Every structure is written in structure tokens, then in C-alpha cells.
Amino acid sequence: MTRQEAMGVLARANREELHDALDAWPEPPQSEALRGPEAGMIMLRGRAGGGGASFNLGEVTMARATVRLSTGEVGFSCVLGRDLEKAWLAALFDALWQSEAEAVDTRLLAGIRNRLDVEGRQTAVETAATRVNFFTMTRGEDE
Fold this sequence. Notes:
The longest helix is centred in the last third of the chain and has 28 residues, at about 100-130. The protein is about 45% helix and about 30% strand. A hairpin with a 6-residue loop joins strand 1 (about 30-45) and strand 2. The protein has one domain (about 5-125). A three-stranded antiparallel beta sheet has the order 1-2-3. The mean pLDDT is about 90. It is of the alpha+beta class.
């Protein structure tokens, strides 16, 4: 798993998962805040058809944080919503991932990925249930 993938999983974690992992961590890391945590807004952009012209979809709230561990690693996070604690915890685990990737993956990221997979499959099932198949039918008198 790359750092970018790990940061993506951390951004989709919920606060309880991050908090529980930190509580269970053998030696809680010493850290200092370099930026934030702070809340703000960002503009979401979309593309028509996935590859067409881009357009502004709208603004959403986000929280970000930057932390440095006592060992020197710097972690970043940017998460949707205004949960400042979640942003700080995600940045902390990003910094930890840089020196202890296997431990962070085993103790935290694997469980989050499993939850996201289950939720994704459930969403796919619910979406498939609403699928409408359109077809064309010719009428006999139109010949």
C-alpha cells in the first residue's frame, strides 16, 4: 500500500475507528501540531461524462491538520466535514504510517478497508434493486 492509498483510507475512516486505534496503540506517539486542525471550505469540481469539460459542482466543508511526531515524521490530513479531531487523528496516523506502515495497516487500515468493502457491496446491491432496463418495442400497426 502506498502512502497516498493509506491517506485515502484514513480520510474515509470514522472518528471512533481512529480514536480506538490510538487508545490501543502500545506507546502513544508524542506529537505537535504544525497546522490546525482547522475547518474550511473547498470547491468540488466535476466532469460531464467523466471526461468532458469540468464544472464547479459546489462547495463542501473540510477539515485539515498537519502534525509532527517527536521522531520527525510529518503527517497530513484533509477530510470532508468539520470534525477537527478526526483530521488531527488522521494526520497523526499518516505520520505513524511513515515509520510503522505494517503496524498501522494491521491495527487500523485493514479494518477500515473491510468496512468500506462491505458498505460498497451493500450500496451496489441497493442500487441494482432500483435499476430500470429500457427497451424499444415495435407495434404491429406501424408496419
